[in-house]
Amino acid sequence: xxxxxxxxxxxxxxxxxxxxxxxxCDESFAVSARPLARCHFPSCNAPELLSRIRxxxxxxxxxxxxxxxxxxxxxxxxxxRVTAINLGLELDEGELRRxxxxxxxxLVNDLYAAAxxxxxxxxxxxxxxxxxxxxxxxxxxxxxxxxxxxxxxxxSGNPPLVLASEGGHCDFAPRDEAEIDLWxxxxxxxxxxxxxxxxxxxxxxxxxxxxxxxxxxxGRGLNAASVVEAAAIGETEAGRAMEMFVSLLGATAGDLAxxxxxxxGICLAGGIxxxxxxxxxxxxxxxxxxxxxxxxxWLAKIPVKVILDPCLALNGAARIAAxxxxxxxx
Length: 330
Prior knowledge:
Elements: E1 6-13, E2 17-25, E3 37-42, H1 46-61, E4 68-73, E5 77-78, E6 81-84, E7 89-92, H2 93-100, E8 105-109, H3 110-117, E9 126-130, E10 140-145, E11 149-155, E12 161-165, H4 177-190, H5 201-212, H6 224-232, H7 236-260, E13 265-268, H8 277-280, H9 283-290, H10 296-299, E14 304-307, H11 312-326
Parallel strand pairs: 1-4, 4-8, 10-13, 13-14
Antiparallel strand pairs: 1-2, 2-3, 5-6, 6-7, 9-14, 10-11, 11-12
């Protein structure tokens, strides 16, 4: 490992996988554009996570504690504690500080970290779906379907303003008779029908099962990637599920744009959008995004992008860790 004033540890702990990265932070608290070292593994319980972190630090910096740590976790953070809802993982800042011998350690929501990563857009790679008319300094909405559905709002600045959200767990509002039928189907099987029950990997699977008249499958078996593959080879039900998923994603992105007045744009992050670019380029996505009655023309001016950088949340967590050293507020 190269000599550096500070080495900081960043983590992106999702419901499916965990990503760790070690970054260089210089005397001005600027963070390297990419991790010096990185590892990823299936998400796990707290003792195993701690063991994996120690193993990574032992391999890269001989077990020395990093100068600062930020872990982005897929769940709401309150008073230094977080429960990853789709994983059942519980973490506590105080315990982690003691275990890792690092007083500069913070837990944040994973979409909070991702939004922080967007605060320096020149370091991100993306594909534009709608050019729009970007307002410099305007609010940016981040929508991230993956194992769950994450949301956040960002206003760039020094420091940037990031607002975490658990909007993925808000009620799903059907727009037509087909979606009303889908809502009834999910209501029967799950009780509360949130947006995440449809706009996520498991959500795509739920839509597919509805299209085929099947009960949702809990546990192993068919997955969202299988649905995407089936649609690509022309399976009718899979194709219908993909069209409905993309339409629902567009509608939810439009809702977020209105809720946050996101004149800075909407950014689609998470594991799914980069894998379904072909579908997002189709008119159904932007038509659903703009289809908000009297606000249609306003939404046509909102830039919409797909973030292609797999290190977005990790880079954001690294910048948050650096802010702990500089005593800047996050």
